[in-house]
């Protein structure tokens, strides 16, 4: 704090405050850098220490870094930075001390308030705000002194009229400079000269500092109204850090190092308008606050903005948690996560009446208010009967006659976040029957309230954090309900909010108000969420009733998506007759296609109607059917609990049309719908073979891959698989479990990787029927080796 005694003004830092005043409490006053002897360490433990900091100029304002404890003192034309350090007295004891490390010279600005946090410096005069950042450079770098405008004429043009004009201003005219807002590096154009002067004792060991310009803003008083100059001055400058807190520690210095800065915000205010900027990564105006009354002072927290007028304490919402969430998480506003927008309108939460409010400050969940009783109200209270004053209620007692107005201090506890959240949710229930954006706005405010409370986990007990996490999930569920039921352009946000709520698909469907008749309207948000959820490989299986409702919903709202919906593993329990009736209705809607045909064929298999199945399959060519399987791979392959499961359709094709099955899986692989290993695993599971055995259908698939000329990246591996299989069958005289789809003649005509067959192969091959497949394997092996270059043959044989 800045103190004045005997006409001298100086800065004092108080450490080791005592909770109670006792006879044994002592106070020690010492200068900065004054060494403390080891024998005095025990005395220092039990007394308050005042560190006196001398200055060459009169200090006007002071700021303490809320994270590291460094002090920045503002004087008329310079700002002095004192770095907090701990002076080691003994191995077990150290005392607080400061080191004068830097002087920042800024011309043409007289500070009224300053704020300092983690190298960020905010300076405010009556109508100007300047925000800088101290950056460290390499040790051998050239020291940088910023003089954007070195000539005095340029400075005078940028800052104001000449001395001759200033005399006219005081007598006959009022000159107002044009309002200005300069963001980022453009703020160099403000015309201010900034010079850094390192003064630390260990300067040779430190890195050089330079300035990064962030913001300059100048306001012009509104002279259209007859108001005094005091009514148009800026006030309440504040830098608010939002950081990720590490694990609690008894060592204060160690704890500060564990705080990772996520974002930094700057707030300042005019009497009727407040401005909130974000200054980390990008500098931008986030929110503008319009006050219903003239604001005397304001204080910003990660959750609220508290503003005092002459008689009211007002509370406004802030967007800090939303800004931090978007800056910190690259997956925000995707199908995985969402957050209310920073641009959402701010609103007032509560207004409390206090008489004679003068000052406000904030500590954790406490608001400290300083009030001064009105003199006229004091005169009225003097007429009331006197009461005996006591220490407990001294702050609210009458002043004795002849004394001045009474000063009072109030400590107000803010409402716990979960309690306020529940109140806002209860209030939002009044909008349930009305389709309006007000419900989304109110629930978004409640959601951001919980987000902000979860930022600083160090201040929370384990039970409190669990309660907040549960409230966070609940708020996501409420927002998901809003976006799924209301007609809004952001209906797609229902999906990420429902995901963040940890609600299952069945639980979300249970929250839907299903109408008994067919007049129910399904909004885009709900359709989008269910459609996307069913596209995912969920292990959740809906009940027959819920599956029927989902099918009916898409039949009415999105009939084009109905084939995809019915192919989802989650819809396994749907009644096949109901699914068939839904698909049959697509004929009249103009959606008849190969995908609808294949879906009908799959449903016909579940119904056990093979005639109906053949009728559907014969309505398209084989190539068209392959294209249909590419559009919806889940007709053949599904995943449950991370395992590949062939469908009933795939099992039936294996028995009746294996060529179509192989061609379809090959089409899926070409279109990146299935990987190489997944395809191999699919055929092994389909044929009931283990990992060590290779069914003939898989060999047919490998040969189809080679015929289709896949990229050279997989060619060597594919050749090795086929060669190994041919050699293994010949050596073991193992017959294939099914008839091969391609003969050696087919491979010669279709693939350049196979050469010409030699006559000696026919001589070695017996003509008996039992060895027919043996002869085919021998021919394929000879053709295959003959078609490959010598180097590849040697490599394969070596493998």
Mean pLDDT: 80
Instruction: Classify the secondary structure makeup into a structural class.
Output: alpha+beta
> In percent, how much strand structure appears in the residues?
15-25%
Which residues sit in consecutive blocks of at least 5 with pLDDT less than 50?
A: 140-169, 246-257, 378-403
Please work out how many helical segments DSSP would assign. 27
Largest sheet: 5 strands, antiparallel
Indicate the overall shape: elongated
Distance between the termini: 80 Å
Strand tally: 27
Q: What is the spatial order of strands in the main beta sheet?
A: 5-6-7-8-13
Radius of gyration: 39 Å
What is this entry, summarized?
It is built from 27 helices and 27 strands. With 799 residues, the chain is an alpha+beta fold.
Description:
This protein is of the alpha+beta class and 799 residues long. Among the domains are: 1-158, no CATH class; 593-693, no CATH class; 700-799, no CATH class. The chain is 36% helix and 22% strand. It is built from 27 helices and 27 strands. The strands form 7 sheets. It has a 5-stranded antiparallel beta sheet with strand order 5-6-7-8-13, with no helix packed on it. Strands 9-10-11-14-12 form a 5-stranded antiparallel beta sheet, with no helix packed on it. A 4-stranded mixed beta sheet has the order 1-2-4-3. The longest helix has 24 residues, at 462-485. The N and C termini lie far apart (80 Å). InterPro entries: HPS3, HPS3_C, HPS3_N. This is Hermansky-Pudlak syndrome 3 protein isoform X3. Pfam families: HPS3_C, HPS3_N. Residues 2-400 form the BLOC-2 complex member HPS3 N-terminal domain. Residues 150-168 have a biased composition (Polar residues).
């Amino acid at each position: 704090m800045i103190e004045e005694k005997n006409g001298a003004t100086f800065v004092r830092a108080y450490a080791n405050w005592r909770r109670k005043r006792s006879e044994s409490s002592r106070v020690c006053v010492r200068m900065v850098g004054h060494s403390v002897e080891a024998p005095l360490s025990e005395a220092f433990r039990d007394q308050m220490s005042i560190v006196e900091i001398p200055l060459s100029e009169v200090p006007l304002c002071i700021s303490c870094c809320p994270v590291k404890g460094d002090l920045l003192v503002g004087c008329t034309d310079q700002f002095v930075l004192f770095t907090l350090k701990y002076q080691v007295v003994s191995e077990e004891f150290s005392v607080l001390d400061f080191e004068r490390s830097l002087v920042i010279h800024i011309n043409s600005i007289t500070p009224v308030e300053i704020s300092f946090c983690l190298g960020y410096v905010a300076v405010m005069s009556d109508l100007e705000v300047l925000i800088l950042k101290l950056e460290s450079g390499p040790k051998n770098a050239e020291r940088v002194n910023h003089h954007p405008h070195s000539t005095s004429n340029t400075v005078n043009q940028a800052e104001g009229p000449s001395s001759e004009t200033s005399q006219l201003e005081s007598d006959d005219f009022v000159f107002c400079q044009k309002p200005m807002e300069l963001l980022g590096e453009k703020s160099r154009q403000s015309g201010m000269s900034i010079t850094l002067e390192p003064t630390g004792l260990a300067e040779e060991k430190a890195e050089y500092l330079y300035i990064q310009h962030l913001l300059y803003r100048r306001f012009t008083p509104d002279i259209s109204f007859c108001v005094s100059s005091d009514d148009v001055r800026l006030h309440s400058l504040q830098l608010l850090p939002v950081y990720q807190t590490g694990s609690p520690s008894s060592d204060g210095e160690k704890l500060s190092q564990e705080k990772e800065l996520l974002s930094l915000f700057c707030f300042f205010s005019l009497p009727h308008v407040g401005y909130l900027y974000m200054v980390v990564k990008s500098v931008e105006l986030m929110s503008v606050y319009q006050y219903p009354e003239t604001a005397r002072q304001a204080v910003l927290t990660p959750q609220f903005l508290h503003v005092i007028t002459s008689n009211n304490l007002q509370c406004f919402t802030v967007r800090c948690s939303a800004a931090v969430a978007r800056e910190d998480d690259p997956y925000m506003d995707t199908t995985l996560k969402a957050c209310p927008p920073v641009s959402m309108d701010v609103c007032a939460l509560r207004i409390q009446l206090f008489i004679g409010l003068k000052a406000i400050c904030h500590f954790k969940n406490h608001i400290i208010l300083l009030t001064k009783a009105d003199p006229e109200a004091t005169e009225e209270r003097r007429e009331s009967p006197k009461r005996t004053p006591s220490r407990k209620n001294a702050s609210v007692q009458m002043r004795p006659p002849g004394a001045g107005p009474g000063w009072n201090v109030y400590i107000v506890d803010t409402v716990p976040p979960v309690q306020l959240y529940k109140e806002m949710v209860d209030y939002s229930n009044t909008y349930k029957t009305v389709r309006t954006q007000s419900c989304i706005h109110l629930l978004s405010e409640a959601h951001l309230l919980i987000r902000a409370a979860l930022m600083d986990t160090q201040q929370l007990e384990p039970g409190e954090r669990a309660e907040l996490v549960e409230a966070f999930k609940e708020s996501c569920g409420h927002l998901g309900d809003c976006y799924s039921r209301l007609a809004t352009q952001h209906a797609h946000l229902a999906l990420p909010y429902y995901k963040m709520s940890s609600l299952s698909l069945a639980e979300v469907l249970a929250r839907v108000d299903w109408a008994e008749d067919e007049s129910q309207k399904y909004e885009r948000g709900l359709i989008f969420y269910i459609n996307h959820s069913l596209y995912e490989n969920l292990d959740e299986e809906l009940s027959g009733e819920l599956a029927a409702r989902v099918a009916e919903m898409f039949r009415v709202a999105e009939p084009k998506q109905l084939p995809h919906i019915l192919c989802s593993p989650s819809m396994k329990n749907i009644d096949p007759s109901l699914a068939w009736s839904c698909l049959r209705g697509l004929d009249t809607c103009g959606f008849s296609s190969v995908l609808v045909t294949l879906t009908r064929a799959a449903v016909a298999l579940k119904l056990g109607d093979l005639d109906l199945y053949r009728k559907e399959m014969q309505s398209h060519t084989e190539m068209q059917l392959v294209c249909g399987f590419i559009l919806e791979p889940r007709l053949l392959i599904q995943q449950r609990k991370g395992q590949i499961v062939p469908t009933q359709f795939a099992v039936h094709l294996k028995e009746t049309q294996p060529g179509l099955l192989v061609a379809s899986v090959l089409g899926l692989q070409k279109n990146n719908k299935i990987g190489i290993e997944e395809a191999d695993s699919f055929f092994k599971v389909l044929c009931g073979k283990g990992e060590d055995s290779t069914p003939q259908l898989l060999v047919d698939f490998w040969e189809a891959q080679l015929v289709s000329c896949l990229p050279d990246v997989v060619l060597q591996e594919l050749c090795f698989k086929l060669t190994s299989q041919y050699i293994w069958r010949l050596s073991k005289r193992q017959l294939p479990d099914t008839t091969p789809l391609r003969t050696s003649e087919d491979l010669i005509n279709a693939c350049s990787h196979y050469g010409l067959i030699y006559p000696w192969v026919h001589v070695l091959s017996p003509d008996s029927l039992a060895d027919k497949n043996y002869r085919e394997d021998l021919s394929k092996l000879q053709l295959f080796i003959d078609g490959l270059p010598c180097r590849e043959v040697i490599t394969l044989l070596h493998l």
